[in-house]
Amino acid sequence: MSNFENKTEWSIAGLIALLSILTASTAYYSHMEDSNSTHNYFSSQSIIVEANSLYLEANQAIMYDMNSYDSYVIASNDGNESLAMFYFSGLSQSAVDSDNRTTGPFDDQYFEEMYAYASLRESEGQELAGIAESQNNAADEYQLAVLFSAVGLSLTGWASVITSTRLKFTFMGSSVVALTLSLLQALSVG
Question: Is the pTM of this model over 0.85?
Fold first, then answer.
């Protein structure tokens, strides 16, 4: 084997090693992003379900406040102060506060207070879902890098068995292009 052929074989072996490492590492990063995405997606869905439950709970509290307030007004109009105070004492603090405001009872601030925690949890769930989507996109971008390096690896494998020097270097050159594309793709993720 000539010195030129020996260097060519070592170059092919180096390309195979580089492309194998690149394929494995980008596949690993893709898996990690995908795993984080899955975890965050299901966590976000759990939070959003909790937020929906909190909205229903707030709706029930609002209905209770409105019914109690109606009973309070009816008892007050009938002159039954002890019954009126009984119904008034059953109101939530937000309802009592809204009754004391000039815009109350049951003004916008009351509804904002009653739905505040549910809205907060919904926002947290939506934010986590957005993070999960970004991680899923990153996993897809890493998979494109895996594709490039796998194609380069295949071309290098073929270059190792081809006897035509010209074709061998064509395949090796294509492998270097695939290696470069894979590196650029992997580095662009984020």
Answer: no
